[in-house]
Amino acid sequence: MNTLPPPPDLPLLPVRDTRTRDVVLDYADMHALVADLVLPGNASMYVMSAMETSRELIRHSYYRYEFATVAVTHSLFALEHVLAERLAMNEPLHDLIGRATDAGLITAGLAAELDRSRLLRDKLTQGAESSAALRPLRAVAMVRAVFDAISLLLRPPSAPEATAADVGAAQPEGGLAQLWEHHLRAPFPDGFRGVDLDGVDLVLLDADVAGLVQRELKIGLDNGGIAYLWGCIADLDKIVPLINEECCASYFTKLRTMAQVAAVRYIPTAT
User: What is residue 3's predicted lDDT score, i.e. its pLDDT?
Assistant: First the structure.
């Protein structure tokens, strides 16, 4: 008589969610989507754990589409924690974001992106949105904004607050060169050539920022160039929240980051 227990069922391998078929070719490509989502080493274990979980949820949205939306809402735990500590106050997330913006700790454009994540969380709580609200590419952009904000907020309070425009480059020149190399490899979003948003031509704005960044890397900007760059940043802050297509939003969010990094050393002069 066989007294051995029956063999356990073999574990089922995860299966790709068909809703991600237009996002990446295979699971390996998900790694590239989140590769740059890294926090500074001085983040607490709580913050690091929450943000790493958010990053991995996006990666695994390849297998479960809804994980992308959950990643964004989960990242807000870390954001609210860091904001409350940095500002030394316990208020609703919307108020904390506003106070950090008023204090110059984060840019207005970054604050707008963070507030979109908060609004999404509130809609989920109210049942006005489902956990399938976001495509993975849009979730990456929203979680990246939280990573950027936390990196800024974790800077020592003694550091000049005006450097909030620099979204994480320890050495602005080195960071700018790397961002420029990435920009050169990024194709302009299909279907957006000739598009005008709120009076801003996207192609011309892209070309203007590229020319200014090239000049900054080679010889630096004169007063006219500095003023022009700040005008481009203002246009980017205006149009990025208006872009509803994920790839285009990601492209111009990165363009704004590059412009902000290029402007860092001119902030005292500009103000």
Answer: 61
Going from the C-alpha of 152 to that of each of 101, 268, 269, the distances in angstroms are: 11, 18, 21
Task: Output Rg (C-alpha) for the chain, integer angstroms.
Answer: 21
DSSP 189: P
Cα–Cα distance, 155 to 153 (Å, whole number)? 5
- The packing angle between helices 223-239 and 202-218, to 10°, is 140
DSSP H helical segments within the chain, as ranges?
28-34, 45-59, 67-87, 93-102, 108-126, 136-153, 172-185, 202-218, 223-239, 246-263, 267-270
**What is d(CA 100, CA 84) in angstroms, rounded to the nearest whole number?**
10
Contacts of 220 (CB under 8 A, 6+ apart): none
Angle at 188 between CA 174 and CA 251, to 5 degrees: 55
The pLDDT of residue 270 is above 50: no
Q: Is 52 exposed, middle or buried (0-12, 13-18, 19+ CB in 10 A)?
A: middle
Q: Which residues contact 62 (CB under 8 A, 6 or more apart)?
A: 16, 17, 20, 23, 24, 27, 30, 136
Q: Which residues of 244-256 are buried (b: 16+ CB within 10 A; e: fewer)?
A: eebbbbbbbbbbb
**Which of 82-86, 199-203, 218-222 has the weakest average pLDDT?**
218-222
Position 11 scores a pLDDT of 64
Whole-structure pTM over 0.70, yes or no?
A: no
What band does 158 get if pLDDT is binned at 50, 70 and 90?
A: very low
